[in-house]
Automatic annotation (TrEMBL):
Highest taxon above the source species: Bacteria
Family, similarity comment: Belongs to the glycosyl hydrolase 13 family.
Annotated region (Disordered), positions in chain: 1-37, 504-534
Record key words, sorted: Glycosidase, Hydrolase
Entries under NCBIfam families matching the protein: glgX_debranch (TIGR02100)
Residue ranges, compositional bias (Basic and acidic residues): 504-522
Identification of the protein by name: Glycogen debranching protein GlgX
Primary gene name: glgX_2
């Protein structure tokens, strides 16, 4: 009998031989490694020089004096194998008989001299930065730290090496065999101007979904389930933006309080799908499950955008755990401070990856290409993206990292979204990123929140945000869809909480309500929290309709936050990053309430209106000049009296505005070069408490009224009495296309 049995199925679900050790031969790694090759980095299962099967291992570790490859059997027993070959600062070796499913790690020998930034410690088992899968949990234990945490002289504790073995407390990398050719996948390739983003958490989206089988809830397979996808298609969204799915761990301080890093902005493995979201296993099965999820979403016409955290890692500051990068080459991966003993922290998380260094740029771009080419994703949202563009003197928009992405033939064709700030000096860069990049537009968020809570003295700022934020994005040839418009996101109040709370209520986080922003721009409408008062509840629901209508009818790319369309609440917690429970999970029973069901129906109607009418999703900035056969302006701003706004009107106090979009003056052409024609639309907004009369230039047919639960009567009107704090959308017939 051979030492290996062929069993199972491939990672894409199709039946094919897989390999598992049957225990009748010596443990893997009994022989010394063969030389192997120095690239690609990571562990690659392949056919060896003599036709047998095995795995090539390659680790970039330029300052190492020696590298041990460590293999772990089913009982957790470790065998070590010295990698003796080094090429271009990469240690490498090929081990025959090491097959998919094998767990491994590295121990790196070298200088321990924290005063110069060297923090090698072979007592610490290190995760391969290129690991395709990760198995096992990180458990908070002092032995995971490279230095002695309880050293009595605290000011030098980080310089005293801790020689305890960390292996029992840290996750292991897994050898994965990837032979998926994506033969049956069809990417939606939705144009930017037609994109509607839906930000969701893989686990939280389905944990309470009654139609998803219990064993699949909270997993990639759960999100791929027809019941989950049906909600997305009913809404009409074109892309899901997934909170971090790179493998991440929970910080020690959260574990000490019995909490977890639910959001996942604490990345350890940039190539590995988070194992905790896998229903099928963590020994490589998570890779195939993730791919099947992507395929299912693509089949429904939905793109997959990943929220990625390349600005810092889970190793935190110098007294954080040594899990991977710090022990491999501390100053090679991290940006040192002036002393070189600590880190320059532009992220607020203890460290910053040093994207000035080519190996770090390679790590990030290799990761991005892997997720596009081999995992099928369609784009990325970069957390604290300004940190990735930091050079020697601040944020630089000609930074090598941005240049590498923009010239890459694969990455330059996917959707790239920046969170355009970090916590360092000069880190606020909204409007500053180059072409190809979209940006989260917090100017839009703040302006829309302020308008509907009555905090704006006039309507000038609102008009700029409604029309695509040309003040921020018109420079450098960018388009309105560079602005990713949002009113809420994972970080902050939900939409329902935005109209229900004046203050944050974060006590459950265990930080005495100190965490989370105090700048919420929210309004509780007279009662803090939920209310049984029919008047308060009615006004709040109307405000939710106002906010969603404004978001989905503005130029730019709208982003919805999962559950906002059905009145999800976090009980006033505006920083639920550690709440893996009902606080964060979507409550699908809300759709049984008529108010919340009608809100979801309104959201779907707005998304489908946007999709059906090109005048509502402009590809170019408005000119404001007469155009088209009827000489109409593409965009006209009107007073409630029905006349065009003057300079005096713009600077006068007021909370009402009318925006007229001309369907005969669209600058876009179709694929055959013909002019695109559409209906005219008129959007009326009234943020004042009192009703307001609007006179229309010509009769229009009401399309929606946020003061109504259903659709208004489709009868042409020349005048509208707009309820206080409400919005009305009207339309006029489309102009005929010239022969």
């Amino acid at each position: 009998m051979t030492a290996w049995q062929e069993l199972g199925t491939g990672t894409d679900g199709r039946t094919r031989p897989a390999v598992r050790w049957n225990g009748s031969a010596p443990r893997p790694g009994g022989a010394e490694p063969w030389p192997g090759g120095w690239q690609p980095l990571g562990a690659r299962f392949r056919t060896g020089p003599e036709g047998g099967r095995g795995t090539n291992f390659a680790l970039w570790a330029p300052q190492a004096e020696a590298v041990d490859l460590c293999l772990f059997d089913e009982r957790g027993r470790e065998s070590r194998h010295r990698l003796t070959e080094q090429t271009y600062q990469t240690w490498h070796g090929y081990l025959p008989g090491v097959l998919p499913g094998t767990r491994y790690g590295f121990r790196v020998h070298g200088r321990w001299d924290p005063w110069t930034g060297a923090r090698h410690n072979p007592a610490k088992l290190l995760l391969d930065p290129y690991a395709r899968a990760v198995d096992g949990a990180y458990t908070a234990h002092d032995a995971t730290c490279g230095a002695v945490r309880n050293w009595p002289e605290r000011d030098v504790a980080d310089t005293v090496r801790d020689d305890r073995d960390s292996a029992p407390h840290v996750p292991k990398a897994v050898v994965v065999h990837d032979d998926d050719d994506w033969y049956d996948d069809q990417r939606p390739k939705t144009p930017w101007a037609e994109t509607v983003l839906y930000e969701l958490h893989v686990r939280g989206f389905t944990m309470r979904h009654p139609d998803v089988p219990p064993e699949l809830r909270g997993t990639y397979a759960g999100l791929a389930h027809p019941a989950a996808i049906a909600h997305l298609t009913r809404l009409g969204v074109t892309a899901v933006e997934l909170l971090p799915v790179h493998h991440h761990v929970s910080e020690d301080h959260l574990q000490a309080r019995g909490l977890v890093n639910y959001w996942g902005y604490n990345t350890l493995g940039y190539f590995a799908p988070h194992a905790g979201y896998s229903a099928s296993g963590s020994r490589g099965q998570q890779v195939g499950e993730f791919k099947r999820m992507v395929r299912a979403l693509h089949a429904a016409g939905i793109e997959v955008i990943l929220d990625v955290v390349y600005n810092h890692t889970a190793e935190q500051g110098v007294m954080g755990p040594t899990l991977s990068f710090r022990g491999i080459d501390n100053t090679g991966y991290y940006r040192p401070d002036r002393s070189r003993r600590g880190y320059a922290d532009y992220t607020g998380c203890g460290n910053t990856l040093d994207t000035r260094r080519p190996p770090v740029i390679r790590l990030i771009t290799d990761s991005l290409r892997y997720w596009v080419a081999e995992m099928g994703v369609d784009g990325f949202r970069f957390d604290l993206a300004a940190a990735l563009a930091r050079g020697g003197d601040g944020v630089e928009m000609e930074h090598p990292f941005l240049a590498a992405v923009s010239q890459d033939p694969l990455l330059s064709r996917v959707k790239l979204i920046a969170e355009p700030w970090d916590v360092g000096p000069g880190g606020y860069q909204v409007g500053g990123f180059p072409p190809l990049w979209g940006e989260w537009n917090d100017h839009y968020r703040d302006t829309v929140r302020d308008f509907w809570r009555g905090a704006r003295p006039d309507v000038r700022e609102l008009a700029t945000r409604l029309s695509g934020s040309s003040d921020l994005y018109q420079r450098g040839g960018r388009r309105p869809y560079a602005s990713v418009n949002f009113v809420t996101a994972h970080d902050g109040f939900t939409l329902r909480d935005l109209v229900s709370y004046d203050r944050k209520h974060n006590g459950a986080n265990g930080e005495d309500n100190r965490d989370g922003t105090d700048d919420n721009r929210s309004w509780n409408h007279g009662v803090e929290g939920d209310s049984d008062d029919p008047a308060v509840r009615s006004l709040r629901v109307r405000q939710l309709r106002n906010l969603l209508t404004t978001l989905l009818l503005s130029s730019g790319v709208p982003m919805l936050t999962a559950g906002d369309e059905m009145g999800r609440t976090q009980g006033g917690n505006n920083n639920a990053y550690c709440q893996d429970n009902e606080t964060s999970w979507l409550d699908w029973s809300l759709l049984d309430d008529p108010d919340w069901r009608s809100l979801a129906e309104l959201t779907a109607r707005l998304v489908h209106l946007r999709r059906a009418h090109p005048v509502l999703r402009q590809r170019a900035f408005f000119s404001g000049r007469p155009a088209g056969p009827d000489g109409q302006r593409d965009l006209t701003w009107l007073t409630p009296a029905g006349r065009e706004m003057t300079d005096a009107d713009w600077f006068s106090p007021g909370q009402a505005l009318a925006m007229r979009l001309s369907g005969s003056a669209i600058s876009e052409r179709d694929q055959r070069g013909r002019e695109v024609r559409d209906a005219d639309f008129l959007l009326l907004l009234n943020a004042a408490a009192e009703p307001r009369h609007f006179t229309l230039p010509v009769p229009h047919v009401p399309v929606l009224d946020t003061a109504l639960a259903g659709a208004p009567d489709p009868v042409p009107v020349a005048e509208v009495l707009l309820t206080g704090r409400s919005a009305v959308l009207l339309t006029a017939p489309a102009a005929p296309r010239p022969a």
